[in-house]
Amino acid sequence: MSARSQLRAGLAFLAAAQFIVGGWALLSPRSFFDIPWVGMRMPYNAHLMMDYGAMSLATSVVLCVGAVTLRQTMIRTGLAVYLVFALPHLVIHLRLLHHLTPGQRVPLLTALTAAVVIPLALLALTRRARKES
Questions:
Q1: pLDDT mean by block of 10 residues, the chain; 133 residues
Q2: 20 to each of 13, 54, 71, 91, how far by Cα in Å?
Q3: Residue pair 14/82 in contact by the 8 Å Cβ criterion
Q4: Rounded Cα–Cα distance for residues 3 and 33 (Å)
Q5: How far apart are CA 58 and CA 120, in angstroms?
Q6: Burial class for 106, CB neighbours closer than 10 Å (0-12, 13-18, 19+)
Q7: Theoretical Cys-Cys bridge with 32: which of 3, 4, 25, 119, CB 3.0 to 4.6 Å?
Q8: Alpha-carbon distance 1 to 91, whole Å?
């Protein structure tokens, strides 16, 4: 599989994940908040959940445009936008693990770590894809 194909697939995956999560949080904020990883026994805030959903949907647009166009600037911008959220999000949750049971911690940390590793790997692929062009 070429670097360009891997980039397109990776960007499409991230865009779809952001779209699904964002749509869920925006359209059904209470059910999204009720996920133990999200609510973490804190008070419910519908406004915050809907804002998070809208932000995730906006991020999905940038990632999708990168996947469709495969323009280096768009790809790198989309991945940078995603990482500016994903890296602090991982760090925040590392500090808040006391809210979760051990069985909830592993899948959460796996998902949040993947949310940082995948875009970093895709950023590295942008160099290889550029050479293929």
A1: 94 98 98 91 94 97 97 96 97 89 91 97 88 66
A2: 11, 11, 24, 23
A3: yes
A4: 37
A5: 20
A6: exposed
A7: 25
A8: 33
**Rounded Cα–Cα distance for residues 119 and 115 (Å):** 7
- The CA dihedral of 91, 93, 49, 27, to the nearest 10 degrees, is 100
Say if CB 78 and CB 62 are below 8 A apart. Answer: yes
**CA nearest to 11, candidates 78, 96, 58, 84:** 78
The answer to whether 4 and 70 have CB atoms below 8 angstroms apart is yes
Which candidate, 96, 119, 120, places its Cα nearest to that of 108?
Answer: 96
Instruction: List CB contacts of 73: < 8 A, sequence separation 6 or more.
Output: none
